[in-house]
Design goal:
A: 111 residues, alpha+beta, 3-stranded antiparallel β-sheet, 23% strand, globular, B: 137 residues, 4-stranded antiparallel β-sheet, 4 helices, 31% helix
């Protein structure tokens, strides 16, 4: 059992939004290959971290809460999970910005 | 500086009692460095970084003074979910005062609110979840 790391795609997206915290897990190079060494702030490298680390970064720097809730069936077994996104009001400036964030995230969930 | 949140010593000892023995980057070790003191026993502990390479890891885990593993909150949360089918999670009280509450489910659902931070709520959730497990001798 191990910590779940973010994928290359998520790492690229995180960097585009200013994610620059280095938890020393390693980094992805632009081909998507994961290197287990210290990130050297390369322009075409992307920080790799655990899912929970990025979750904390979103919470503490952007005020965005992401959490996962299990769904139970009649036998009280967990079949599915769903995600919830929530942004603290003090991080928002206007209705439009809030809605933009919601729309952006909603679109990103479509496969 | 954002860091991974390790579970506290009390929770770590509880996790060990309940059978948690996964590989972790950190361990709690008995020390003379006066870093952490267990108020129940008066013993002193600190958590020590274990480099993520097997050879170093083996060296450290064979060390006599290791007290217990110091996993991140998320790893212990995963262990509870995958090994014991206990789900615990934390979410903000969005319509109240922006504190946090936790939920845990494992045969029954338990919820508690009023925690000032996500990490404090999660620590409490993990501890309560562990308490529902049988102690492994």
């Amino acid at each position: 059992m191990k910590e779940e790391l973010i994928t290359f795609e998520t790492a690229v997206l995180a960097k585009s939004f200013g994610f620059d915290q280095n938890p020393s897990y390693g980094f992805y190079e632009k081909t998507g290959k994961l290197w287990w060494s210290e990130w050297q702030n390369g322009k075409e490298d992307y920080i790799c971290c655990t899912q929970s680390f990025l979750q904390r970064w979103l919470r503490e720097t952007r005020g965005i809460e992401v959490w996962v809730t299990p769904l139970f069936n009649k036998e009280y077994k967990v079949n599915w999970f769903y995600i919830t996104l929530y942004q603290h009001p003090n991080f928002l400036c206007s209705y439009e910005e809030a809605l933009e964030l919601g729309l952006y995230n909603a679109l990103k969930t479509i496969k | 500086m954002i860091e991974e949140e390790l579970i506290g010593l009390e929770t770590a000892i509880l996790a060990k009692e309940k059978g948690f023995n996964e590989r972790t980057l950190y361990v709690y070790k008995e020390t003379f460095a006066h870093d952490i003191e267990d108020h129940h026993t008066g013993n002193e502990y600190h958590n020590e970084y274990v480099p993520p390479r097997p050879s170093y890891y083996d060296y450290f885990t064979e060390h006599d003074h290791e007290v217990c593993k110091a996993p991140t909150q998320s790893l212990l949360q995963r262990w509870l979910r995958e090994v014991h089918n206990i789900h615990c999670w934390v979410s903000p009280e969005t319509y109240l005062n922006f504190n946090y509450h936790y939920f845990m489910t494992g045969g029954y659902t338990h919820m508690k609110d009023g925690f000032p931070t996500y990490e404090i709520a999660m620590e409490e959730a993990l501890k309560e979840s562990l308490k529902t497990l049988k102690t492994i001798k």
